[in-house]
Amino acid sequence: MMLPGWRQWLFALxxxxxxxxxxxxxxxxxxxxxxxxxATVYITMQPLAGATRSKALYRVVGTLIGVSAAVVMVPPxxxxxxxxxxxLALWTAGCLYLSLLDRSPRSYLFMxxxxxxxxxxxxxxxxxxxxxxxxxxxxxxxxxxxxxASLVASLVFPEPVGPVLASRVGAWLQEAGRWTGDVLSGAGxxxxxxxxxxxxxxxxxxxxxxSAHLAYxxxxxxxxxxxxxxxxxxxxxxxxxxxxxxxxIAALKGLSGLTPELRGLLADVEAWSAAGAPAVExxxxxxxxxxxxxxxxxxxxxxxGPFWTALVRASLLDRLxxxxxxxxxCRVLQEGxxxxxxxxxxxLAFAGEFGGRAPxxxxxxxxxxxxxxxxxxxxxxxxxxIATAWPDGATAAMMGAVLxxxxxxxxxxxxxILSFATWTGVAAAAIGVLLFGVMPLxxxxxxxxxxxxxxxxxxxxxxxxxxxxxxxxxxxxxxNALLAIQDRYTSEFGAYVNSGLALVGGIWIAALVTRLVRxxxxxxxxxxxxxxSRADLARAARRRGRGDRTAFAHLMLDRLGLLVPRLAAAGxxxxxSRIDALAALRVGMNLVSLRRAxxxxxxxxxxALDDALDAVASHYEGPRGPASAxxxxxxDAALARxxxxxxxxxxxDALLGLAGLRRALFPEAPPAGAPILAREAA
Length: 682
Fold this sequence. Notes:
The chain is built from 25 helices and no strands. By secondary structure, the protein is mainly alpha-helical.
């Protein structure tokens, strides 16, 4: 186990200092439950200052919405426990559903609005006449904790988002550059190397999530948020382009079509990429690629082999052209981000394709299932509370609602919930010793701070690692709740034990309901993502209108970023390990290109192309498996029909799209040739 570094110690000192600051102010202004302010600090504080401010804003707004909902629901429904339970549970579940569909930092707002109503509403049922005062007090305590966390994060050795983001972008582009070198040199890829390439998609999603906090940053890079969005689009497009390039190079090698001219061009592009893709040299490379391109010859049965070789060569040059143009853009945008500029100093390629809002994957089914789990978990806690007349049953109901929401993004939240329950139990035991063995000796705030500081710092240290973050949260949040510090010592052992049992009991009930309703596992999550991508590929093939390939790429690559960790968790023995996720992405890119190209074709060519696209749609609408020989025949028939024409507005794009589709679906098939044409004629 590695010892914490100075950054980890700094964060631990900052979060513990912010918690003590919130406690001191709350005691000074005589708030009813100062420990809420302390617990809020641990929920809000992030290592990066911009992320803390972003989370703080959404938490304040979500808290205000949640307390308002509690004030509206509790007074008129308090006489009917069943209706109040249903109202609070439905509100929590509905907000969780919206949170899971949003998938941006704003999702935190919806989640907070949901379970804050439960945090305020359930304890207030015994004294509904005080609901407004309680709601105001909770809002003040939570807001105080948020403000203290934001203040300390911003003023005490702040770590801005911008430099971290710039460093992550640089590391991503460096790894993409290594992949580019491997592809252009024709080096083969071992399974471990392919897994690293897929990891690039997941890392691009992490960079996107990090960039969402840039607007709340104070670094120079905060002005570069528009450039980050443009760069992310190009980063994502690099993945299918490099995958296609690797395929075309391998295909041309098999066809003996890699001429000395092409080899020299590939070597020069490789050297340019290794040098950091300088923008000043890109135009010369693009001119050389343009000069190497040739018009596609008419197709003839007797010349099927050379025609296919010409198609693959033209496709390679198209991908190479896109690689150089996007690589140049990435370099220009990276330099702009490093400067903190809001605008690019040089014109960008594909300027119209990378604007607008990037679509994200939304799984309504799993969001509804998670919402159902939160609803049933909350109701189950209330049923136990009422059936046993449990004095602290409100605490169990609160924790059931919170825990069902907190880990809802995981495929199987139960292990995390049970770990949270275990460490809450540890916190209860440790706090019991502190509360009844040490706290009676504390008589002023200075001695109180000295007593609390070691435990608070330890919780902060645990929060600095992804592996121990849940432990730090369980100890920091529930530990402060159990400690329940107020302006005078009033603890009673029986009440403390009951409160601790309610905390752990509510978490266990949430785990049980989640196990029955919500747990699915990583492999199930991966299969849902694959099914969603297949459905989108079928829709892309069926539709006949114009397509936005960048929006489609964003959606497919967003899914790819979600899929990669699930494929890793599924294990090497799963049939999912054999899936070529980038090949499916290439299919989608070619489908969008074909939908565009069909508008420039003659009627008989459109009919042949639509026949092939319908066959592709049928393949993706059916069960997962290898594509059929009938689909290959239809693609080759479309190639023959469109290729027989000497010219046409959409001929080149249609032929290259069909060639790309054929290579993605049938990488081992022999070149398109005369036997297919003979079967078509027969």
